[in-house]
Design a protein that fits this description.
With 130 residues, the chain is an all-alpha fold. The protein is built from 6 helices and no strands.
Length: 130
């Protein structure tokens, strides 16, 4: 429902990157549930914790736009990428799922959630560097 009036201008605009991060966390649940029992505590917990922390870091980077917060988000995205590569290499994560979330953007497709989040975060990083 669209609101008009003085309060409508003061409301924060929804963050597209936050919606992507939330969708990625929800989508990853099926993969986390498929991790073998003997690796759920170590690997599954590490990946799950990293993914659950992502929306928090996105909010901090988006609202603060300070060099420290944006760099922290970019570093965290690298950690998640590393954990996902380890999981794919060990066979804990489905390669098709990784391909879907890492799908690069094209003219007709925005790309996978992780690829979009990474592109936005590193664009912020380039602006903060200036």
């Amino acid at each position: 429902m669209r609101q008009h009036g003085p309060d409508a201008a003061n409301r924060p605009k929804p963050l597209i990157v936050l919606a992507l991060a939330e969708r990625l966390v929800v989508d990853a649940q099926t993969q986390l549930n498929k991790i073998p029992r003997n690796q759920r505590f170590r690997y599954g917990s590490a990946l799950g914790d990293a993914l659950y922390r992502l929306p928090e870091l996105v909010i901090q980077a988006a609202t603060g736009r300070t060099k420290t917060k944006v760099y922290a988000l970019c570093d965290h995205l690298r950690v998640i990428a590393s954990l996902m590569r380890i999981g794919a290499e060990a066979g804990y994560i489905d390669d098709r799922w990784l391909g879907r979330i890492n799908r690069p953007a094209t003219d007709t497709d925005a790309g996978g959630e992780y690829a979009q989040i990474t592109a936005i975060a590193f664009a912020w990083r380039a602006k903060v560097k200036e």
